[in-house]
Amino acid sequence: MSDDPRERHAALVRLIEDHNHAYYVLDRPAVTDAEYDALYRKLLALEAEHPELVSPFSPSQRVGGAPREGFVKVRHAVRMYSLDNAYSDEELAEFDRRVREGLPDGAPVSYVAEPKLDGLSIEVVYEDGQLALASTRGDGIEGEDVTANVRTIRSLPLRILERRSITVRGEVFLHGADLEQINSERVAKGEPAFANPRNAAAGWLRVLDPRITATRPLRVFLYQLVDGGRLHQKHSSSLEWLSEIGLPTHCKHVVLGGLEEAFAHVRGFDSERHALPYETDGIVLKVDRYDQQEVLGATAKFPRWAIAYKFAAERALTVLVGVEVNVGRTGALTPVAILEPVQLGGTTVSRASMHNEDQVKALDVRIGDHVWVQKAGEIIPQVVGVQKELRRGDERAVEMPRACPVCGTPAVRMPGESATRCPNGRCSGQRKAAIHHFSRRGAMDIDRLGISLVEQLVDRGLVEDVADVYSLGKEALLGLDRMADKSAQNVLDSIEASRSSRTLERLITGLGIPMVGQVAARLVAEHYGDLAGLVGADTARAADELAKIHGIGPKIAESVARFLADPDERRVLAKLVERGVVAVQPRPEAAAAFGPLAGESYCVTGVLSRKREDVHAMIRAAGGEVHESVKKGTTYLVTGEKVGATKIERARKVGTQIMTEKALYARLER
Ligand code: AMP
Ligand code: ZN
């Protein structure tokens, strides 16, 4: 590399952006994480030394700027349309017929087929080779300026080779695996899961603080060059060109000769798409030639030259019979759609989620409506749309209750939340959900204590809180519906099994303390050792003590302290002890055998951010073995800064994988 810092900087920027492209767009990383990190650190070091080199287009500036007060409106130069849908082969054939009829006699039509990603559409303007403006679709005419947020998305280059001004459109989305991980963390913290990638992407793109967007695994695929006819004759040529100038496009697009080929493609793709790392809810077919697109034009809402073919199996049309409102353990009131049973993805569906009041409003759904229900991955089915053309006029509005449907307490809505809550801590709806949560697999694992049993127990006053589970007798159980001697015994056995053999970490998880997920539960459990220690905690000092633990932030510490000081919660904890519940947390050393690094060996090298002995201790505490040098059988070489090439070569030779210091810490958090 050159000696001139300016040239070195430019070269580093280019390299890093190339790697971003390889990783986020092509899914073919060209370097290991360690090598990427090393380049990035070099860039930071160079910029620290020469602050004048920092440009808005350096990868170091992708961390997000200062939060804003609100969003500025942006007018789209060309209207951003939605897409018309086809749900069957007939509807697709109908689209093809309309297209051909709309064109001068006998003109052959080719279509471009692209996967339809489930995310949020954005428009991005590059001027003089630089990302200048990014906006959401909004109402199609005006969107919101989300430039600062979009700049943090690494699959989108901040600079391109093309100097002419271009406007592109695409979808912000995330990979299914990323969504799953985020959802399991949210659920562990008592937050609602995102129903689909679209909700997650929309939420994160439209936060006022772009630093939040920067930490989220968002990606972009571009699917349109606006006013592409200016530069190319066909949409497919534009897509290829976009990818040539370094922009992320669908690499899965194909050009099809006509309807028959479209059918064949749809079939093939329907079976293939599940192997893709992102969710696709259909295929978009677009007339390839721009001159033909122009002739066809648009309706008030859709272009006439494109259609989204939605895969039928995962969506079904049925009637909304009613809406039930459930109370979650945190008091959140969630509307649940009661449906006329319908076949969907191999199962019969008669209930579906509608998430919250805002969602009900957004859907503008009424009782008696024909609604589309969809199943996304493993997630519970949800109502995704209303077929308003089928309304007869006698549909009734969905009333979200002003009070908790279980206990009647007036519902409240916290500013900034999309859920309405029942604020009554003694609400039996909340208690049922809390007890069910307590018995869950990741918590106390009382497998015979399912939700319907919990409901009966609470309704009959046999159980009020989680501690009462441990004083249940056979008599009481035998009085319940369909409970024979044998099944009563099974319930008691499964409760008994949990009484003394669960770790404190599981018990804490089961208590459902706000913001405390599995990781925090483990740290809190290690701090207090066992249930008696937790009960005896000095509540005045708990927040300060806990906040000192690495991995527990002040908010979590506060939340735990508040829980431990709450007289109602204290009563329940005391009752648990009284009823013989013993929950011991294995000492961290003993836990090592089951730690996240168990069975692995590590050699640490280079200049690290903490003392090497400390890193060794952390590895051992998590069950890993420490090797002083890389040898055959060493699982990982952890690299700090200034790592000698010989070490790396040696690792490659004996098959040891290489990871960064940061990756090691991430692994320790598992
Ligand atoms: P809908 O939101 O159901 O009206 O569908 C229209 C939306 O599909 C567009 O606004 C885009 O956000 C999205 N979309 C996803 N993939 C594509 C694609 N390949 N081409 C066009 N639009 C797409
Ligand atoms: Zn209530």
% residues in beta strands: 15-25%
**Uncertain parts:** none
Work out the helicity level: 25-40%
Give the biggest beta sheet. Answer: 7 strands, antiparallel
Helix tally?
25
- By CATH, the topology of the largest domain is D-amino Acid Aminotransferase, Chain A, domain 1
Mean pLDDT: 87
The kinds of small molecule bound in this structure are:
adenosine monophosphate, zinc ion
What Rg, in angstroms, do the CA atoms define? 29 Å
CATH class of the largest domain: Alpha Beta
User: Structural class per helix/strand content?
Assistant: alpha+beta
In the CATH hierarchy, what is the architecture of the largest domain at level 2?
2-Layer Sandwich
Distance between the termini: 38 Å
CATH fourth-tier homologous superfamily of the largest domain: DNA ligase/mRNA capping enzyme
Short description:
It contains 25 helices and 24 strands.
Q: What does the model show?
A:
By secondary structure, the chain is of the alpha+beta class. The protein has six domains: 5-63, Helix Hairpins (Orthogonal Bundle); 85-310, DNA ligase/mRNA capping enzyme (D-amino Acid Aminotransferase, Chain A, domain 1); 315-391, Beta Barrel (OB fold (Dihydrolipoamide Acetyltransferase, E2P)); 428-500, DNA polymerase, domain 1 (Orthogonal Bundle); 504-578, DNA polymerase, domain 1 (Orthogonal Bundle); 601-668, Rossmann fold, CATH 3.40.50. Helices cover 38% and strands 19% of the residues. The protein has 25 helices and 24 strands. Strands 12, 13, 14, 16, 17, 19 and 20 form a seven-stranded antiparallel β-sheet that branches. A hairpin with a 2-residue loop joins strand 4 (120-127) and strand 5 (130-136). Helix 1 (5-25) runs antiparallel to helix 2 (33-49) and helix 12 (428-438) crosses helix 13. The longest helix is centred in the first third of the chain and has 21 residues, at 5-25. The chain starts with a helix and ends with a helix. The model has no long low-confidence stretch (mean pLDDT 87). It binds adenosine monophosphate and zinc ion. Zinc ion is lined by residues 327, 404, 406-407, 409, 422, 424, 427, 429.
